[in-house]
Design goal:
The chain has 229 residues and is of the alpha/beta class. The chain has one domain (3-228): Alpha-Beta Barrel (TIM Barrel), CATH 3.20.20.70. It has 8 helices and 10 strands. The protein has helices at 12-21, 39-46, 64-74, 87-99, 120-128, 158-168, 186-193, 212-228; strands at residues 3-7, 25-29, 54-59, 78-81, 106-113, 138-143, 175-178, 197-200, 205-206, 209-210. The chain has an 8-stranded parallel barrel with strand order 1-2-3-4-5-6-7-8, surrounded by 5 helices. A two-stranded antiparallel sheet has the order 9-10. Helix 5 links the parallel strand 5 and strand 6. Helix 7 (186-193) packs parallel to helix 8.
């Protein structure tokens, strides 16, 4: 069954929407973005969520201490590292979790996917400079867009993404596909990649806010496509 993540929750009303639609994961963005929330806002939403929905904290270029304190305060289940991390940072994060007696929290790593074939070699170098991908609980493919750390609504070229997917799935079988996915194209996305999961944000919104019908259609179609593939 394809796992489904709805990212970018920022209003308490969003909890009502996802409780009705029941994705597997929801995401809180603790990074520069129009969907950014602080820990207090995220906790208010988190406290209203169905207990079966897991909460993901999305971080970019931050400190280990900030991740640890936010994880404890909000009650995060997953940490999504949405930048090019390195071995030293990951080791420090694991050590800090152990020292704070945090257990069971998953770590996901964003994998940047280029928009042009001419960039592929450069992006492979970036990926090879990351920690070994088997150390992460999941990977999340998202297009790399200048001045954006995700949630752009732009999809990466599928032919490029498939080459990265076919190679990296040998290192980590839990791969989420993100970027430009919504109710209309999630079925094709699932059939093309057969991913572990899909992640959407901007295409689930109307006037910059999560839309009940779009969120529920996305969850329903993704799950149906995953069960058929």
């Amino acid at each position: 069954m394809t796992q489904v993540k709805v990212c970018g929750l920022r209003r308490e009303e969003d909890a009502n929407i996802v409780n009705a639609c029941m994705p597997d994961f929801v995401g809180f963005v603790f990074a520069p973005s129009k969907r950014r929330v602080n820990a207090q806002e995220a906790k208010r939403i988190r406290d209203q969520l169905h207990p079966q929905i897991s909460c993901v904290g999305v971080f970019t270029q931050t400190t280990v201490d900030e991740i640890v304190s936010t994880t404890i305060f909000v009650g995060l289940d997953v940490i999504q590292l949405h930048w090019d991390t390195n071995e030293s940072f990951l080791n420090d994060l694991f050590a800090a979790f152990s020292q704070a007696s945090i257990s069971g929290v998953k770590i996901w790593q964003r994998i940047p996917i280029p928009s042009q074939e001419s960039q592929e070699e450069e992006y492979w170098r970036r990926i090879h400079n990351m920690p070994h991908l088997s150390r992460f609980d999941a990977l999340l493919f998202d297009i790399s867009v200048e001045h954006s750390d995700g949630g752009s609504g732009i999809a990466f070229p599928w032919d490029i993404g498939k080459r990265f997917y076919d190679s990296l799935i040998l290192e980590n079988r839990c791969i989420f596909i993100a970027g430009g996915i919504g109710p209309i194209n999630v079925e094709d996305t699932v059939r093309h990649f057969s991913p572990y999961g899909v992640d959407a944000s901007s295409l689930l919104e109307t006037n910059s806010y999560k839309d009940y019908d779009k969120v529920c259609d996305f969850v329903r179609v993704a799950r149906q496509a995953g069960s058929d593939s």
